[in-house]
Amino acid sequence: MLKKSLISLLTLVTIFTLAFGASVLLSATENPFVVPDSATAITAPSTVATGTYRYVSADITGDITVSGTLFLVGDYTITGTITVADGGSFYMSDGTLTGDGIISGGNVRKLFIERGGSFFMHGGTIRGNVADTNSGGVRVHTGGVFYMHDGLITGNITTSAGAGIYVDGLFNMYGGEISGNTSRNGGGVYLGNANAVFNMCGGLISNNTATDSGGGITLLSGTLVMTDGIISGNTSGLSGGGVSLQHSSVFTMYGGEISGNNNTRIPNANQQIGGGGVSITGSSAVFTMNDGTISGNTAISGGGVNNYSGTFNMNGGVITDNQAVNAGGVLIDRFSASSMTSFNMTGGTISDNTASNRGGGIWVRSHHNVIISGGYIIDNDANYGGGIYILDTGIVNISGDTVISNNTAVYNGGGIFATNFANLTISNSVVFGGNTAATLHNFYLHPDFTPGGNVAAADSGGGQGGSTANINWASVSIPGTHALNNYDINFIGYAYIPTMAMVTFLPGTNGTFANYVTYISFQVPVGTILTAANVPNVTENADWEFIGWATNPMTDPVGFVVNEDVTFVAQYESTYDGSPATGITGFVIGAIALVTLGGVMFTMVKKAGKTSV
């Protein structure tokens, strides 16, 4: 029966090859905890040799070495250290492993899994263990394996790393909770070498604290693959409130949530760091986000993600509702003037992040390469650069179907604030729309500049100016303007003050104008009061009666004050008994007419002095 149980346990893990050629541990399909009938009952174990045993006695104060198989199934308290040796297996579904706050000297931890040993946690609690160096709760040695399906690891403390779990081997988490642990690095979980692997397929890592890095998880090296689960409410003092990546560590996120974490680091001229959700400080470290959510995290710098030295690839997922002084969503920082940090965005969404100073969505500091070829940067807010803020020599290339929309700057650069325009390249497929800033300006109207020309520093709204030769776009927030209109990209050289407005009349489908023209448009000075002479005559079609004009709502054009572009649409009623009205009705909001034609809603937008449907 034990063999059957172990074979069943192996089926817990489903390996599935996803995009990018990565083999990823997905989820547990079942959660067995079966004590075989052949298990020998023991009452005072110190060494569990070859064989299968179940503990059935009272609390244990001494240490235990497991070389065979041991099941802990009762609500017992063990205050000694358990060592799972090579070939040993320890199953825990109840009980408590505790140090009761007593400091264990050296590298002694509550549960030590040696090479070849396995620990299966289906319940119970590991708590209150205090170590004066590494690993307060569980230590997984290289070659050891820890499967966590349920249970609680809490209240453990170390002065160095891995208060909850220190991993040099393999840790698979399907459920359970790691919370309330405190360490210098990796308050909840710490990966200590290149062989360390942590597959997070579920469970909760919350409210852990690191005085330096990685309140929830620190990767000194090794690999973290996250397909589900929650990392939340953790705090760090230097970097990575949720997760900290160092050296050559690799973190791939396919799902799950990193939320509500906090980094308290106050940056200075020599050391920025930060990262409320995730920080990347290793020059060879790589964070790839394919899906999942990073939300509600806070920091002084980089509320969601701070890439301080390595590479951040964003292919999907959402970074949203994070907050910071600089870089509410993502901070592309620098370790030194000679280092080059990379951010590659091909998809996903960066939205609703807030920076009280610069870069609501993204802040790019000096000496970095940023390539954005897809995705959405929307609804972010900052004083400067609501969507993106680019400092000094930061190099940013934006292309593909990227959308930068509905971002807000209190002052300048609603969509993008670029300190040096020469370092910004935008393709003609990029869409701007709905961005706002303090004042709208029109680059085209400035007498000193032409598209592709140079902008003086004084006209850039706080930057250095520079060449606009590489700046193109598919659409802008204010039709007819250059992207440097301050709503989309920072520019204050010439204020856009409309002096003329377009008036348009549409006959609808149940009437005509003279000579069967499809519309009548003309410009008038802003403030003009329309008279009867401005209003065209309408000839109704058979069985239809003209009843007036509509903007929003029904409005008589005579006496109407024109303060902006406006469209009037002829309204009709059917005079045919029993036949439904199929005419054109509608209204106009600003420069956009919403029209119902034969029961179908159309949007008509005025461009270059005429209305198109």
Characteristics of this structure?
613 residues; disordered N terminus; mainly beta; 15-stranded parallel β-sheet
Walk me through the topology.
Blueprint: H1 2-10, E1 15-17, E2 23-25, E3 40-42, E4 47-48, E5 52-55, E6 64-66, E7 69-72, E8 77-78, E9 82-84, E10 89-92, E11 96-98, E12 103-104, E13 111-113, E14 118-127, E15 130-131, E16 138-140, E17 145-154, E18 157-158, E19 165-167, E20 170-173, E21 177-179, E22 182-185, E23 189-191, E24 197-206, E25 209-213, E26 217-219, E27 223-232, E28 235-236, E29 243-245, E30 250-253, E31 257-259, E32 262-263, E33 278-280, E34 286-289, E35 293-295, E36 305-307, E37 311-314, E38 318-320, E39 323-326, E40 330-332, E41 341-345, E42 349-351, E43 354-358, E44 362-364, E45 368-372, E46 376-378, E47 381-384, E48 388-390, E49 395-398, E50 403-405, E51 408-412, E52 416-418, E53 424-426, E54 431-433, E55 454-455, E56 466-467, E57 500-506, E58 511-512, E59 520-525, E60 528-529, E61 539-540, E62 544-550, E63 561-562, E64 566-574, E65 584-589, E66 592-597, E67 600-607, E68 610-612
Parallel strand pairs: 3-5, 4-6, 5-7, 6-9, 7-10, 8-11, 9-13, 10-14, 11-14, 12-15, 13-16, 14-17, 15-18, 16-19, 17-20, 17-21, 19-23, 20-24, 21-24, 22-25, 23-26, 24-27, 25-28, 26-29, 27-30, 27-31, 28-32, 29-33, 30-34, 31-35, 33-36, 34-37, 35-38, 36-40, 37-41, 38-42, 39-43, 40-44, 41-45, 42-46, ...
Antiparallel strand pairs: 1-2, 55-56, 57-59, 58-61, 60-63, 62-64, 65-66, 66-67, 67-68
Describe this structure in words.
By secondary structure, the protein is mainly beta. Among the domains are: 359-497, no CATH class; 500-612, no CATH class. Helix content is 1%, strand content 44%. It contains one helix and 68 strands. The strands form eleven sheets. It has a 26-stranded parallel beta sheet that branches. A hairpin with a 2-residue loop joins strand 66 (592-597) and strand 67 (600-607). The longest helix is centred in the N-terminal third of the chain and has 9 residues, at 2-10. It is elongated, with a radius of gyration of 32 Å. The N and C termini lie far apart (73 Å).
